[in-house]
Automatic annotation (TrEMBL):
It is an enzyme of class 3 (hydrolase). This is Metalloendopeptidase. Binds 1 zinc ion per subunit. InterPro entries: Astacin-like_dom, MetalloPept_cat_dom_sf, Peptidase_M12A, Peptidase_Metallo. It comes from Lutzomyia longipalpis (Sand fly). Its EC number is 3.4.24.-. Residues 57-261, 255-355 form the Peptidase M12A domain. Keywords: Hydrolase, Metal-binding, Metalloprotease, Protease, Signal, Zinc. Residues 1-18 form the signal peptide. The active site is at 155, 312. Zn(2+) binds at residues 154, 158, 164, 311, 315, 321. Coiled coil: none annotated. GO terms for molecular function: metalloendopeptidase activity; zinc ion binding.
Length: 355
């Protein structure tokens, strides 16, 4: 089970939850992902010349970010002719995964100067990080097994502007690098970046990130090269989906994009929400109730979607359901004869003194 996320709303927060100790869930993952074993930096990252020269560029530098159309960073793309319709559908599904939980948008190129060309040269799975200007390559080798939804998503996230999760400046608090198992000459793939170069945007370390290496990346002896310090139940190196945390954060981003509300990771604030996944459905308190308060998104019940997370977070901000509005009967009819017995109270109207 994932460790609960602790979030502050409008500057209101409380006490950090401790992570349980124990061995991570490797799920017998002995084979590294294709994107982890290439000859590029960290296996699948290409650098523009000026990214290498300057120590203060990267995701923190607006120069490498894609231009926005409205509020959406927008990435034009083209496919080369090597991909079949099926291959293209898989890659577009990776784009859809990113779009479902972020404000990033991928669009077929028309005449834009800066864009990515998705090709299938026999050189593995790799991408540049961020926008490097003009045409830039994102390579998904069909022969190397790179054309999967997960790997496509991973490489596209590099193109958006993100590095690997285990390069985070705080990574040594969460994982141990088993240097004795790393291939000679590949040690540079486990470098840590400074805060002047990258940021996690306050989201914290995520073992289950689709951008995290698996435990056997660049292993010379089939022994783990990365070992989790805490057991959160997440799978390092998974390429199946965006993590639960990423989906919930995308719900926060939806609210922040159209309001003045801001969600921030808790430090020492007294009033805060703990986002948990007890098997009790999807629910939240309304507004700030003081001290720690629960917002529940049951994984088992299917609550961890961008839409449901946004809905429950809006309750936590302080809003009730729209159909409880004092004027609702001017706009909708409640068909009482069809309502479950004992559930009529769910259709109550609030007064102006309350709502």
């Amino acid at each position: 089970m994932k460790v609960s996320a602790v979030i502050v709303i409008l500057g209101l927060v409380g006490a950090a939850s401790a992570l349980p100790f124990g061995r991570p869930n490797y799920q017998n993952m002995t084979a590294p992902n294709p994107d982890e074993m290439g000859d590029n930096f960290e296996g699948d990252i290409k650098f523009a010349a000026d990214q290498v020269i300057s120590p203060h560029t990267g995701i923190l530098d607006p120069y490498w970010r894609w231009e926005k159309i409205g509020n959406n960073p927008t990435i034009p793309y083209v496919f080369d002719s090597a991909f079949t319709a099926t291959h293209r559908a898989v890659i577009v599904a990776g784009m859809a995964t990113i779009q479902a939980s972020t404000c990033v948008r991928f669009v077929p190129r028309t005449s834009e100067r800066d864009y990515i060309t998705i090709q299938s040269a026999n050189s593995g799975c790799w991408s540049y990080v961020g926008r490097i200007r003009n045409a830039q390559i994102l390579n998904l080798s069909i022969q190397a097994g790179c054309v999967t939804k997960g790997i496509a998503t991973h490489e596209l996230i590099h193109a958006v502007g993100f590095f690997h999760a285990q390069s985070d400046v705080n990574r040594d608090q969460y994982v141990r690098i088993k240097w004795e198992n790393v291939m000679e000459g590949k040690e540079h793939n486990f470098e840590v970046y400074t805060n002047s170069y990258v940021t996690d945007y306050g989201e914290g370390y995520d073992y289950g990130s689709i951008m995290h290496y698996g435990p056997y990346a660049f292993s010379k002896n089939y022994m783990p090269t990365i070992e989790a310090i805490y057991n959160t139940g997440e799978i390092m190196g998974q390429r199946d989906t965006a993590t639960h945390r990423a989906v919930i954060v995308s719900g926060m981003a939806t609210i922040q994009a159209s309001t003045c509300v801001r969600f921030v990771p808790r430090t020492t604030e007294r009033d805060y929400i703990t986002i948990q996944s007890a098997n009790s459905g999807c629910w939240s308190y309304v507004g700030r109730i003081r001290n720690a308060q629960i917002l529940n998104l049951s994984i088992q019940a299917g609550c961890v979607t961008k839409g449901i997370a946004t809905h429950e977070l809006i309750h936590a901000v302080g809003f009730f359901h729209a159909q409880s509005d004092v004027n609702r009967d001017q706009y909708v009819r409640i068909k009482w004869e069809n309502v479950m017995e004992g559930k009529e109270h769910n259709f109550e109207v609030y007064t102006n003194s309350y709502f």
